[in-house]
Amino acid sequence: GVSYFHLKFLRYALLMWLPYYYEEGLHFSKATAGYMSSSFEFGGLIGTPLIGLISDRQFKGKRDLTAAWFMAGASIMLFACNSVAQAGSLLNALCMFAVGILVIGPDSVLSGTIAQDLGSSSPMGTAVIGTLAGL
Q1: Residue 4 and residue 11: Cα distance in Å, rounded?
Q2: How far apart are alpha carbons 101 and 45 in whole angstroms?
Q3: pTM for the structure as a whole
Q4: Which of 27, 43, 84, 114 has the greatest number of C-beta atoms within 10 Å?
Q5: Coil, helix or strand for 124?
């Protein structure tokens, strides 16, 4: 639950504040800042199926372990993004694309699949899945 809270906070902080950071902090134009911040969400389009594929093939269905590795990678990529902040728009967008893969993938797994795994193994059965997913 704690990891999901922090992951959700990070996702929405980036989603809401990234355009402002690019425009005010790195001095990109408003249009460029808007397009560049979209790279985070586009990374999520890749990250969601990718984490499922890696979880099933490499980690033999251990979704929590896969999510932990993705989140560790996200923290490394966030430091990398900070290091290349002055390197231009392309490198910044590519870094945020990678962060999107590594943040939105675990977000989808923690909010959906792991909640179903925990709910279906509960003595209360599948009735708790909605509650777990809602939390």
Answers
A1: 10
A2: 7
A3: 0.80
A4: 43
A5: coil
pLDDT one-digit tens code per residue, 61-80: 788 889 889 999 999 999 99
- Are 55 and 61 contacting, i.e. CB atoms less than 8 angstroms apart? yes
Contact between residue 20 and residue 76 where contact means Cβ atoms under 8 Å apart: no
| CA-based radius of gyration for the chain | 16
Residue 14: what residue type?
L
3-state class (DSSP) for residue 121: coil
Query: In this structure, which amino acid lies at residue 99?
Result: V
Q: At what angle do helices 30-57 and 2-20 cross, to 10 degrees?
A: 150
* Opening angle at CA 49, ends 88 and 33, nearest 5: 25
